[in-house]
Amino acid sequence: MAFGVMVGWGVFAMPGNTFLPVAGPAGTQIAIVIGMIIMLIIGGNFTYLMGRTAITGGIYSYTKEAFGRDHAFLSAWFLCLSYLTIVFLNGTALIYIVRMLFGSSLQTGFHYTVAGNTIYLYETLVSALALGIIGVLFLIAKPLLQRLHTIFAIMLFAGTILITVVCFPHAIAGGALTEFSSAGTERVHSVLSLVILAPWAFVGFEVTSFDTAHFRFPIWRSRPLIIVAIVAAACAYSAMVLVSVAAVPDGFGSWREYISALDQLEGVASVPTFYAASRYMGTAGIVIMTITAVSSILTGIIGGYRATTRVLSTMAEDRILSERFSRTAYSILFIMLLSIMLAFLGRNTLNWFVDLTSFGAIVGFGYTSAAAGKMARAENNRRRVIMGIIGTVVSVIFVVVQLVPNLTVMEAMGRQAFFMLSLWCLAGFVFYWRTARQGQLTEFSGISTSGVVLFALIIYSSLMWLAKLLLSEESAGKMKADLVWGGAIVMLIIFAGLTIMLYVQDYVRKRNEAGEREKIRAVESSLAKSRFLFNMSHDIRTPMNAIVGYTNLALKESSTPEVHGYLEKINLSSQHLLALINDILEMSRIENGNDHTPEAAAC
Known about the structure:
This protein is mainly alpha-helical. It has 21 helices and 2 strands.
């Protein structure tokens, strides 16, 4: 499960279009090792929390236990975004395989344009069909789908090893493994630029934390499993980098020339990993690589479905979402329909969400590490406290690099990604309003962390979108036009966010005021009861003293034995009743702050 979700289509495509251009083979290997170490630290924080409590909420439950429901909402909201993107991005990755193997054969018939990208219906139906079939299998044959997931993961692992074993000698012989894409201090910058991709590259191992309560083995065994999964994923990324430089098509003198011209190539040559397999293994290599890549896509979709379902059900059980999401069938249908609809926007358009996958994972990793550190401190586990602090600090650094432009060689978050982030934060306010309504007064007593963070991100991401939009224009006229309509959109987004935030805060304030009024009424009611008891017991004690006194006088007079017995009983009952009245009177005095008993005076 952990390995299959981490290793998706990106492990075969990213070496050529991202890793090698930025850092070269040697720099990429160094970055992968550093990223693996960071993920092992964060993975250790997960296994520590998994071993403490066998719950199914995963990151949401850990955050809630450590920091409360408000922070738990924030982590779950962005985590849900990350897992949703894993589902439909892996689904639409099938389009690349279709184009690579069959060229433009499906680029016929009905087509349309979205954001300047031409989308062909037949290609999109391939992705929609895969997403739909997996969704239906979740509904009618979940055990079968789980076994298929295991089979696909094994095929992915075996195919990666086989391709690497065949291509590795050729990669060594070419001498490219020791090369960087830059020189001097720029090497360090390029390596660190790839390290920032670690959350995106390794997101998925944590999905096992959602199924802790259903483990059929001791929970402590999850630690070596997650470690092996992270190491295996790092080896897969590293292996595909080696495969990418193992072969160069005719007409190119080096891997640098080949990689720089990928956008101009078509078919198998456009993906270096596939080209190397076909170069040294022929048709069998293409078949093996295709099976391996499709297995990685399917494991990503299945794992994304499961993880998203867990997050949605956990949020529903905690009354953040509608209780209908607590039913697996409802959540699966929601994910399936949403993913299929997004698939019709085209793969190029959905690439805008790639950066959001990383952002959501970073938020989840950061909260988990912070929760592990806090809980470990309460248990005097110094080693785990240190690991929690390291994971938290690294996550904060990742967030800063993700949001601040030009800190890395690559663009950490593009213009469209900032726009999507602002819309997602705006949508979060709607569910935050539901969370505040369903929460307790002690959980939402004022301006919360979720509200502040969501509103700050709305402002920042919408302004960054506008700034990047203006910088992308080449003429002053277009910049002015973009500033008019772009500014209007930014103002609308910020105004909507501010309106919802103020409404939520006003609702919380009114609820707190109502709670305070209830407390005041309860105190006043208690004081009224105390005064009543005090007055009543004081008024009753006067005639009661008379009854006791006259009974004592009557006992001194001569009377028949029967009458004397009656008077004795009256006297005993009167003394008992008088003692009860005195106790009530003293209790009333204590509640009113007028304790004048000898014991109180002595104190």
